[in-house]
């Protein structure tokens, strides 16, 4: 199995509100927005929003679930200042700051925000991660 | 906020077993494996395995959670045959097949497997998705 991924799909309760969150707060552009599913094209793959009941049904599992979803998403920026600036920007737009950024034990600088349905986004500066000009992880 | 992602972190109960699953069953190579965290470098970002209690603590949220995690991961291949072949391969290695592949309403061909802790991976052929030679989503 090739070591890559094509989609991350978030099962959502309110598709329209979640789409608006990613468009209005994160400033992202949709790649596809019809037939009850929304795609955002990220670096080499799609972040998809799809109603949680339909996602569970597609996978033939129960949609019942509560509490911590057991995963986080992260974007790494190029400096502590970029992290601070993004937190300021998102905070001013009313995005829920779960953990304000601060220096962390592994040598980086990181905090967390949540989208409208408690999917957690870490926003970090990681001095050990080499990024391409397009923001892909090189090593 | 740039429209990209650097990490997906899966909160795991058994780090060693989950690492072995991705190495032995998916055939992936680790990128980093020390200090209680495991990285796999995918296409432009890292899939990370980290103990779920530590992940929740890092995000300052409760680690309590049960049932459907509300997300799926997917890899798109180049044909129905590639999907069938990968299901055969994974099935022969004892990977849990959640949904055997079949034609789906949106025009593709798809099924699901689960890792040891019920993270769902869809394996699909999507005739509408254009992939680069490296497997990045082009459009």
Fold topology:
The structure is a homodimer of 139-residue chains.
Chain A: E1 7-12, H1 15-25, E2 32-34, E3 37-41, E4 46-51, H2 52-59, E5 65-67, E6 71-77, H3 80-92, E7 96-103, E8 109-114, E9 120-125
Parallel strand pairs in A: 1-4, 6-9
Antiparallel strand pairs in A: 2-3, 3-4, 7-8, 8-9
Structure description:
Two copies of one chain form a homodimer. Chain A is an alpha/beta fold and 139 residues long. Chain A folds into two domains: 1-61, 2,3-Dihydroxybiphenyl 1,2-Dioxygenase, domain 1 (Roll), CATH 3.10.180.10; 69-139, 2,3-Dihydroxybiphenyl 1,2-Dioxygenase, domain 1 (Roll), CATH 3.10.180. Chain A contains three helices and nine strands; from the N terminus they run βαβββαββαβββ. In chain A, the strands form two sheets. A four-stranded mixed sheet of chain A has the order 1-4-3-2. The first copy, chain A, has a four-stranded mixed sheet with strand order 6-9-8-7, covered by helices on one side. The longest helix of chain A is centred in the middle third of the chain and has 13 residues, at 80-92. Chain A starts with 6 loop residues before the first strand and ends in a 14-residue tail after the last strand. Chains A and B meet through strand 1, helix 2, strand 5, strand 6 and helix 3 of A and strand 1, helix 2, strand 5, strand 6 and helix 3 of B. Strand 6 (71-77) of chain A pairs antiparallel with strand 1 of chain B, so a sheet runs across the interface.
């Amino acid at each position: 199995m090739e070591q890559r991924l094509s989609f991350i799909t978030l099962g959502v309760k309110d598709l329209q509100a979640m789409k608006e969150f990613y468009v209005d707060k994160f400033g992202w552009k949709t790649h596809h927005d019809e037939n009850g599913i929304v795609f955002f094209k990220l670096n080499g793959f799609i972040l998809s929003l799809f109603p949680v009941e339909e996602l569970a049904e597609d996978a033939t599992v129960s949609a019942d679930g509560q509490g911590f979803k057991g995963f986080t998403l992260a974007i790494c920026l190029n400096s502590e200042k970029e992290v601070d600036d993004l937190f300021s920007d998102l905070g001013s737009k009313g995005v829920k700051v779960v953990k304000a950024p601060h220096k962390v034990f592994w040598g980086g600088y990181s905090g967390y925000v949540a989208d409208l349905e408690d999917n957690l986004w870490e926003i970090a500066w990681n001095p050990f991660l080499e990024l391409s000009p397009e923001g892909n992880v090189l090593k």
